[in-house]
Amino acid sequence: MRAVAIDGPAGAGKSSIARKLALTLGFIYVDTGALYRAIGLYTLRRGVQIRDKEGIIGLLKEIEVDIRYVGDEQHVFLNGEDVNGLIRTEEVSMAASAVSAVPEVRAFLLETQRGLARRYSVVMDGRDIGTVILPDAKCKIFLTASPEVRAKRRYDQLLEKGQEADYEAVLADLKRRDYDDSHREVAPLKLAEDGIEVDTSDLTLEESIRTVIETAKRCLGEEA
Description:
Blueprint lengths: L2 E5 L6 H12 L2 E4 L1 H13 L7 H7 L5 E6 L2 E6 L2 E2 L7 H10 L3 H17 L2 E5 L2 H5 L5 E6 L2 H14 L6 H17 L12 E4 L5 H16 L4
């Protein structure tokens, strides 16, 4: 399996760094969080409360979610609809975090994620890639930063997009997601036993990218 698993909490820069790493290695980038966002979006559309476990489970029979590649870019399709432009809101983020805590949702998406790794050489990011989805991946990186740094990055991103934002509210939401992700009963967010932790708190984005590329190449050895 030619795979790099990148795990870490919300706001750690996984997507930006994983995309650059995949491009450097010539691998396919897989943003597994987008799959959970699609289910979170559907939950919101159907008016089901995001903490209603049984309600969410009941929706799974109505859902078909898939990742396709348009050029070199990953697009997520929900029941045949390209929802790439609809799943990056804060509301959908919170819904994705909630539905991801439901074991049946994780089981529902497990084969989709593993199937991509069988078809492609992948850089796959998420919360449980190295521990559950791709436990045999040769390279497992746990990307993190302090909550305050991650919240500031997210706050700045929102302002750049012209959206109103309150730093303290962003920080509180992020800490709540951290708690939910690390305390769920199934596949909690954690460093794999054979994983390598990379803390980007004091690094710029370019420095973080360079560090992760160097780390991945050491892991993969001749495969890089």
